[in-house]
């Protein structure tokens, strides 16, 4: 610590909380959050984390002369002075750490209050608490003053941080023998609506520890008083004091599955992974064989609050025989499952392993593979047994799976293809590729799809009618990644995918095809003139018989579809050069065809321009000159 910094710290000047922290703190102080009791869980988790850190050091650093049995978290209640004190002998905090850890919260993001719940204070409360796992600050829900005395392991001096809430905090030097942290909460006075005094009752604290912190691996001890029969006076009782360990200390994932209730999993998930809703699915597995490990994983109901930000880190907690060695081990989760939360505990991993070495660890690779397989099989089960739930899951995280099919040159596509869902012309709801293929008509050779903003818009495309007339179903691709993913897949069950907006889609009979070819040959002059009028905007103009009752459409020739052009050009840093090769198709059965044939050169030019613009609009593309478009329409009217 620099001398300057120390001096600054030691002055008993009141410091202000960082703006965002203050906002959150205000919410905590005035919280009507129904689960105020979680403050205890948060403080115990912090203490346990701090002990984890020192315990880990003790295993790898000979300078630490502590063994597992030396670690504990102690709770003391002082009813008279209305205080609860939590003492841990973990890693402790330096003055800088007190400052930065307790003076700032929500370090990783800005506070996005959920505005849709703006009227409902309680909902807002919960969402913020849930979003940030505000931990330490939750003490202010039950306390009007909080003191933290801490000494960092290896430091000579201890410091005391005190705050009565929003008006700031002080830090000063103080005495403390050993490393660790002592947190004292001055419990608020009871109000009409709130019974704060309950937190000064030993039975209540005992209950809360068992409810929320049972799995904590270090003993949580408290001095308990019991009424026992007086050995000297029959019929009378005396108070006996004894220090008891309140928690069972068996990590949840080490317990046998039959012992665990759904609530246990839910509570564990919420407290450990800072969510305020129960998980959508729990995956608990004990694996023996090539690698031996326990894994406890959760699929959240909602994306984590920072899921779509750059800061989001995927990964599972990694334990070696019950000791946390890494908080977010990214190598354990493929990107397409980055939303999965959880942990892995394996005795096969060395404690001393570094992050770099871990990446190359053979054992870890086997575990990662097994985990990938396990998650997939759970999702497959959900798809089969609880369709509604799976669809909800897919709406939330399906995009991830689609990217998974596309990423890494399609390396993972086979494992994911049966987990995909799409909307289709079959009606409401979603279909898997397997279900689609199961419904395919005998004469149908390809899996048809169309792209667009949403199902409704796609269902209005001119090309749809002809395909549906044949009795063929069309998959609706509404996500940008869809077509790219499907290109990667190439085929499903030996059936190729066909974009109904590509010009080579032809569902007509041989005779019809022949007639069409002839018509186009005979009309070569007309079509060439039209192409010329469009001045390089299309590679061809042709008559078509696949537009049902609609006059025109644009289709694409070659590999790049219209959707792909849109997506590729909208990507950051895209060179705008990617162009679909457009073909303007005119419905040969539509009266407009005859109009074109009869028009003089000047009018033909105008008609062509109009039809081209109209076709662009239908395809969801901008038109080059909307003013001219409307001028010509008006003129012709
Ligand atoms: P979180 O636990 O989510 O990081 P908190 O606000 O609860 O958020 O705590 C902030 C930080 O303060 C912790 O990450 C930790 O570094 C530190 N801290 C809190 N309690 C303790 C403790 N008992 N011992 C050591 N460090 C602690």
Could you say which structural class the secondary elements and strand pairing correspond to? Answer: alpha+beta
Bound molecules: adenosine-5'-diphosphate
The overall strand count is 22
Shape call: elongated
Share of residues in strands: 15-25%
Radius of gyration: 34 Å
Mean pLDDT across the residues is 86
- In spatial order, strands of the major sheet run 5-4-3-6-2-1-7-8
- How is the biggest beta sheet arranged? 8 strands, mixed
Helix proportion range = 25-40%
Our count of helices gives 21
What separation lies between the terminal Cα atoms? 82 Å
Describe the protein's architecture and organization.
It is a single chain. The chain is α+β, with helices and mostly antiparallel strands and about 625 residues long. It is built from 21 helices and 22 strands. It has an 8-stranded mixed β-sheet, covered by helices on one side. A hairpin with a 6-residue loop joins strand 3 (about 145-150) and strand 4. The longest helix is centred in the middle third of the chain and has 24 residues, at about 360-385. Residues about 1-10 and about 105-135 have low confidence and may be disordered.
Task: Describe the SSE topology.
Layout lengths: L2 H8 L8 H11 L8 H23 L12 E6 L4 E6 L6 H9 L17 H12 L10 E9 L6 E6 L5 E6 L5 E8 L14 H11 L7 E10 L7 E9 L16 H12 L7 E7 L5 E7 L16 E5 L2 E7 L11 E6 L8 H5 L2 H24 L1 H24 L2 H4 L5 E3 L2 E5 L1 H7 L6 E6 L3 H5 L2 H8 L4 E4 L3 H9 L1 E2 L2 E5 L10 H13 L1 H10 L6 E5 L7 E6 L4 H9 L10 E7 L3 H8 L2 H18 L7 H11 L1
Parallel strand pairs: 1-7, 11-13, 16-17, 16-19, 20-22
Antiparallel strand pairs: 1-2, 2-6, 3-4, 3-6, 4-5, 7-8, 9-10, 10-13, 11-12, 14-15, 14-17, 18-19, 21-22
Helix pairs in contact: 9-10, 10-15, 17-20, 20-21
This protein binds adenosine-5'-diphosphate (ADP).
Adenosine-5'-diphosphate binds next to helix 3.
């Amino acid at each position: 610590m620099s001398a300057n910094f120390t001096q600054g710290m030691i002055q008993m000047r009141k410091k202000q909380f960082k703006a965002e922290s203050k906002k959150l703190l205000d919410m905590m102080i005035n919280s009507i959050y129904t689960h105020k009791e979680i403050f205890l869980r948060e403080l115990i988790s912090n203490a346990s984390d701090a002990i984890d850190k020192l315990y880990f050091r003790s295993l790898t650093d000979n300078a630490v002369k502590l063994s597992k049995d030396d670690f504990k978290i102690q709770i003391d209640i002082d009813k008279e002075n209305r205080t609860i004190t939590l003492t841990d002998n973990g890693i402790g905090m330096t003055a800088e750490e007190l400052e930065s850890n307790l003076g700032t919260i929500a370090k990783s993001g800005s506070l996005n209050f959920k505005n849709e719940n703006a009227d409902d204070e309680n909902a807002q409360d919960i969402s913020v608490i849930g979003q940030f796992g505000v931990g330490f600050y939750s003490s202010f829900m039950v306390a009007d003053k909080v003191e933290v005395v801490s000494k960092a392991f290896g430091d000579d001096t201890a410091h005391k941080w005190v705050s009565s809430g929003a008006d700031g905090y002080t830090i000063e030097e103080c005495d403390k023998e050993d490393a660790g942290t002592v947190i004292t909460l001055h419990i608020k006075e009871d109000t009409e609506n709130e019974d704060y005094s309950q937190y000064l009752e030993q039975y209540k604290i005992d209950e809360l520890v068992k409810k929320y912190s049972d799995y904590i691996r270090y003993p949580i001890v408290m001095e308990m008083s019991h009424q026992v029969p007086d050995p000297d006076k029959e019929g009378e009782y005396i108070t006996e004091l004894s220090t008891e360990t309140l928690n069972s200390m068996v990590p949840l994932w080490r317990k046998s599955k039959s012992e665990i209730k759904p609530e246990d999993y839910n509570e564990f998930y919420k407290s450990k992974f800072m969510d305020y809703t129960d998980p959508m699915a729990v995956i608990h597995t004990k694996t023996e064989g090539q690698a031996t490990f326990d894994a406890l994983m959760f699929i959240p109901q909602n994306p984590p609050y920072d899921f779509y930000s750059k800061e989001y880190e995927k990964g599972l907690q990694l334990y070696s025989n019950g000791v946390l060695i890494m908080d977010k081990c990214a190598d354990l989760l493929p990107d397409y499952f980055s939303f999965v939360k959880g942990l892995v505990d394996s005795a096969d991993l060395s404690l001393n392993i570094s992050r770099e070495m871990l990446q190359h660890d053979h054992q870890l690779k086997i575990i990662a593979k097994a985990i990938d397989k396990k998650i997939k099989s759970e999702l497959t089960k959900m798809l089969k047994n609880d369709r509604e739930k799976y669809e909800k899951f897919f709406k939330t995280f399906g995009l991830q799976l689609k990217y998974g099919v596309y990423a890494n040159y399609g390396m993972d596509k086979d494992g994911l293809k049966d987990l995909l869902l799409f909307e289709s012309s079959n009606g409401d709801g979603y279909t898997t590729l397997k279900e689609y293929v199961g419904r395919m008509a005998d004469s149908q050779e390809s899996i048809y799809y169309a792209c667009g903003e949403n199902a409704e818009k796609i269902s209005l495309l001119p090309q749809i009618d002809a395909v549906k007339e044949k009795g063929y179903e069309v998959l609706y691709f509404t996500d940008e990644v869809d077509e790219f993913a499907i290109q990667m897949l190439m085929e499903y069950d030996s059936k190729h995918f066909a974009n109904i907006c590509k010009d080579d889609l032809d569902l007509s009979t041989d005779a019809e095809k022949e007639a069409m070819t002839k018509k186009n040959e005979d009309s070569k002059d007309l079509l060439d003139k039209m192409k010329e009028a469009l001045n390089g905007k299309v590679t061809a103009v042709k008559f078509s018989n696949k537009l049902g009752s609609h006059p025109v459409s644009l289709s694409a020739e070659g590999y790049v579809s219209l959707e792909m052009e849109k997506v590729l050009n909208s990507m950051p840093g895209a060179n705008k050069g990617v162009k679909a090769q457009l073909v303007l198709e005119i419905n040969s059965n539509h009266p407009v065809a005859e109009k074109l044939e009869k028009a003089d050169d000047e009018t033909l030019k105008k008609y062509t321009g109009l039809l081209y613009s109209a076709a662009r609009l239908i395809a969801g593309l901008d038109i080059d000159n909307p003013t001219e478009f409307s001028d010509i329409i008006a003129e012709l009217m």
